[in-house]
């Protein structure tokens, strides 16, 4: 799941705050230094989501319960990130989600990272509603309109 970060998403709409839900729908997100929230995302309710397919989690004879594998990976990543300092540029909410996906070997991959997840959500994520779309894009579009409005105005007055 994803939600905009005020000011940052307004300037760069592909950057936002990310979390991952357990199979019961409870969202976990690395919201700050040594803090992983539970069902209370750091920047508000989700506006976008990616519905992942549980059948893409490989199982073994000892572990054929995909719900358990998913939830265990989310909790392991959350436990690890409760011990970490938050860093906006290199160890952040996207890294937390990447660790969970890598731990569960989602889609038989161990290469998820903050960059791949950022663009995966940007290009493949769905909006939770029309309001989610507005909350995600309106500030950026307003800033863009103001920028081009001023540019046009000052060129026209020369």
Total beta strand runs: 7
Please mark out the parts with pLDDT under 50 across 5 or more consecutive residues, or reply none: none
Number of domains: 1
**What count of helical segments does DSSP give?**
5
Largest sheet: 3 strands, antiparallel
Shape: elongated
* Radius of gyration (Å): 18 Å
Write a short abstract of this structure:
44% of the residues lie in helices and 14% in strands.
Question: Would you kindly provide a written description of the structure presented here, covering whatever features stand out?
Answer:
The chain is α+β, with helices and mostly antiparallel strands. The chain has one domain (2-156). Helix content is 44%, strand content 14%. It has five helices and seven strands, in the order E-H-E-E-E-E-E-H-H-H-E-H. The protein has helices at 8-11, 66-81, 93-103, 114-124, 130-156; strands at 2-4, 16-18, 20-21, 27-32, 35-38, 48-49, 126-127. It has a three-stranded antiparallel sheet with strand order 3-4-5. The chain has a two-stranded antiparallel ribbon with strand order 1-2. A hairpin with a 2-residue loop joins strand 4 (27-32) and strand 5 (35-38). It is elongated, with a radius of gyration of 18 Å. The model has no long low-confidence stretch (mean pLDDT 94). This is Transmembrane protein 222. InterPro entries: TMEM222/RTE1.
Give a topology summary.
Elements: E1 2-4, H1 8-11, E2 16-18, E3 20-21, E4 27-32, E5 35-38, E6 48-49, H2 66-81, H3 93-103, H4 114-124, E7 126-127, H5 130-156
Antiparallel strand pairs: 1-2, 3-4, 4-5, 6-7
Helix pairs in contact: 2-3, 3-4
């Amino acid at each position: 799941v994803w939600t905009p970060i005020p000011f940052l998403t307004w300037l760069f709409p592909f950057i936002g705050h990310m979390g991952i839900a357990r199979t019961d729908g409870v969202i976990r997100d690395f919201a700050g230094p040594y803090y992983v929230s539970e069902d209370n995302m750091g920047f508000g309710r989700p506006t976008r989501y990616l519905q992942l397919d549980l059948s893409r989690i490989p199982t073994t004879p000892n572990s054929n319960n995909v719900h358990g594998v998913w939830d265990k990976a989310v909790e392991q990543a959350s436990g690890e990130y409760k011990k970490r300092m938050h860093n906006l540029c290199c160890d952040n909410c996207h890294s937390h989600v990447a660790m969970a996906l890598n731990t569960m070997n989602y889609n038989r991959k161990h290469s998820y990272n903050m960059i791949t997840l950022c663009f995966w959500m940007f290009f493949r994520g769905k909006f939770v509603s029309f309001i989610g779309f507005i909350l995600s894009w309106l500030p950026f579009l307003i800033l863009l309109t103001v920028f081009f409005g001023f540019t046009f105005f000052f060129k026209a007055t020369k």
